[in-house]
Amino acid sequence: MTITSQQIRQKYLEFFEKQGHKIVPSSPLIPENDPTTLFTGSGMQPMVPYLLWEKHPLWNRICDSQKSFRSWDIEDIGDNRHTTFFEMLWNWSLWDYFKEKQVPWMFEFLTKELWLNPKNLYVTVFRGNEKYGISKDTEAVELWRKEFKNVWSDALDVDFAEEKGMQWGRIFYYPEEKNWWSRAWIPGNMPEWEPGGPDSEMFWDFGAELKMHEVSEWKDEPCHPNCDCGRFLEIWNNVFMQFQKSGDWFKELANKNIDFWWWLERLAAAIKNNPDVFFGDLFDWIRTKIEELSGKKYGENPKETKAFRVVMDHLRASTFLICDWAVPSNKDQWYFTRRLLRRAIRFARDLWINWGLSKEVALEVIKEYKDHYKELEAKKDFIVTEIEKEEKQFLATLENWLKEFEKLVKWFEIAFEKTGKKIDTISWDKAFKLYDTYGFPLEITQELAEEKWLKIDVEGFKEAFKKHKDLSRAWAEQKFKWWLADSAEETTALHTAAHLMLAWIRKVLWADIHQKWSNITAERLRFDFNYGEKVSEDKLKEIENYVNSVIEKNCAMVLDEIKKSEAESDKTIEWSFWEKYPEIVKVYTVKDSEGNIYSRELCWWPHITNTSTMWRFRIIKEESSSAWVRRIKAVLEK
User: Fold this and answer.
1) What is the pLDDT of residue 429?
2) How far is residue 25's CA from residue 531's CA, in Å, rounded to a whole number?
3) b/e map of 338-371 (b: 16 or more CB within 10 Å)?
4) What are the φ/ψ torsions at residue 495 (nearest 5 degrees)?
5) Is the pLDDT of residue 476 over 90?
6) Secondary structure of residue 176 in the 3-state scheme
7) Which residues of 388-397 are buried (b: 16+ CB within 10 A; e: fewer)?
8) What is the pLDDT of residue 590?
9) 596 CB-side CA count, 13 A
10) Distances in Å between the alpha carbon of 256 and those of 65, 198, 241, 428, 624?
């Protein structure tokens, strides 16, 4: 059966719409009011309030197609299955159905809607962990056995496949590193009150011949669905969101949830029965454009194939990130956009492309996705301008990097002239400086070094790189210390202050200002908005005075739930991230006893009920966040 990725997405949404689900739009890649994470790396992040305490304004069954980005995979891009940007198709049950409906629906969609052969499907489930008081998921096993019964009279469930291999199994038990899901990945890392649960994943088998034991680094390892030999590809994941961290233990949620997701790119690869996701139709236009610009053919040369994959992945991801306002810079999320673009341009040199690639590929990405993600077409000029600007800047940096390398080579020549001793190894610290300062991976330094008959202390470099990566991950994980998803009075008060501040900013600076990012804790708020110049001290004082005047009036916060179409036509309502809202939206209005309105804005996070509970508002800093984005930091003081 021939089916495009766009059709797969549509069939999925229509299938779950028939099962009583409401379709909601994708959230942005830069999460709003969620300091726990840098990017939307899963569809769970925007849904946390509805998993725990808040009723979803639209329905208790929803589905969507979610843009996602995971920064920790950047250095690993180059194989046939990993991408930094990916599209996840989701369905959610919020306090409604559980495993008993989800498992049969999944099997039906795969085998009857998409006509995938069930003989190529394998399932994994959670092994359980006595330390946390969580049992083996035998309930999911029985549901899967029931679905598989028409294919095998007995779909065996087996354990310890990572040690013993397949064992003729169809359903496999694994530990929490493989079959548990929360935003902190495994139970031991979860912060207090974080929801999570066991998951049940499904894998597609491309055939035993793909393991290629005789040439594979896994040739002596047992083969099983969760191994890395290349035979199996995880295509989707049923998360049974039924637990919540409580101290050193876990309690069952009174209202259980289903969090189901799958990779569109991977399912398309399974349908084609080709394990290379970059051969999928979502990459066709992009791949063809790179072949046209380079004169190379994808798949003919291993080194060039890796370069193709890096360029395709990184430029697709950059296009979506810039569309969601993550323009290239050296700060926070914006740094990753810069890193992606520069790495793509560097690898393009392996394909003999030296200029103009980024813009051309970005235009192909927009062409492929614009029908579903209409914001790409609307922001096309902005995206292309930012990409061209970064490419020009980096190519100048590239020349500086080459000069630095030549200086390094010259040092070796001078050392030989002075000592008469041949030094042929570049120390790890010099190689790492080239990487850390100029943004170039080890392999390009190695290539140029080999041309000069030099070696590199690779082990020392890798150790330094590991420390660098660990520090980066630790920095990112610090984001888990705070979470707007609580309903603490201090946090919600600052959130309300942010609404009041934005209302006045739009009056005194520019009517078309919108929020770009916020990080709100119980101690302070950090608020980013689109504006091209520094805000004067006088204007900052005006903003402070406005917020404090509203606080002193003891204004009420009024919540209304209305249709999105009504909100869109109401010019008194302020909004940011319009595309993320469902068809029924929450409008929070701050007004006094006489009916005067001071802020009226779409939102879905908690607020105080009256400004009388707020302390005095003070702006402590205003600064640049990135190109055309300013940042205000503020507090509430007694």
Assistant:
1) 81
2) 27
3) bbbbbbbbbbbebbebeeebbebbbbbbbebbee
4) -65, -45
5) no
6) helix
7) eebbeebeee
8) 95
9) 8
10) 22, 12, 6, 51, 43
Q: Which residues contact 474 (CB under 8 A, 6 or more apart)?
A: none
* Share above pLDDT 90 across residues of the chain, in percent, rounded to a whole number: 44
Q: Which residues pair with 63 in a beta bridge?
A: 23, 91
The better pLDDT of the pair 574, 59 is held by 59
Assign domain 489-637 one CATH number from 3.30.450.30, 3.40.50.410, 3.30.980.10, 1.10.510.10: 3.30.980.10
End-to-end CA distance of the chain: 67
469 vs 532: CA distance, rounded Å: 33
Number of residues that make up the chain? 638
User: Cβ neighbours of residue 631 under 8 Å, at least 6 residues apart?
Assistant: 526, 527, 528, 621, 622, 623, 624, 625
The dotted CATH code for 5-279 is 3.30.930.10
pLDDT for the residue numbered 39: 67
Question: What average pLDDT score do residues 49-66 get?
Answer: 78
pLDDT at 331 over 90: no
What is the three-class DSSP state of 168?
Answer: coil
In this prediction the pTM is 0.69
- Parallel, antiparallel or unpaired: strands 171-174 and 121-126: parallel
Q: What is the mean pLDDT of residues 517-539?
A: 87
Q: pLDDT by residue (tens digit) across 422-441?
A: 778 888 788 887 776 555 66
Buried b (16+ CB within 10 A) or exposed e, 50-64: bbbebebbbbbbbbb
Alpha helices in 324-372 (DSSP H): 332-348, 357-369
List, in order, residues 6 or more apart from 286 with CB less than 8 Å away.
312, 315, 316, 361, 364, 365, 368
Least trusted range by pLDDT, from 37-51, 411-425, 600-614? 37-51
State how far the Cα of 57 lies from the Cα of 237, in Å rounded to an integer: 25
Mean pLDDT of the chain: 84
At 530, the amino acid letter reads: N
In this structure, of 76-85, 424-433, 470-479, the range with the lowest mean pLDDT score is: 470-479
236: its two tokens: 């989707």
Q: Identify the pLDDT of residue 383.
A: 95
What pLDDT band is residue 574 in, cutting at 50, 70 and 90? low
Strands 61-69 and 22-23: parallel
- Domain extent listing, the chain: 5-279, 281-402, 489-637
Q: Where are the beta strands (DSSP E) in 264-379?
A: none
Between strands 121-126 and 85-94, the pairing is unpaired
Average pLDDT over residues 342-357: 86
Distance CA 325, CA 379 (A): 10
HSE-CB of 618 using CA atoms within 13 angstroms: 8
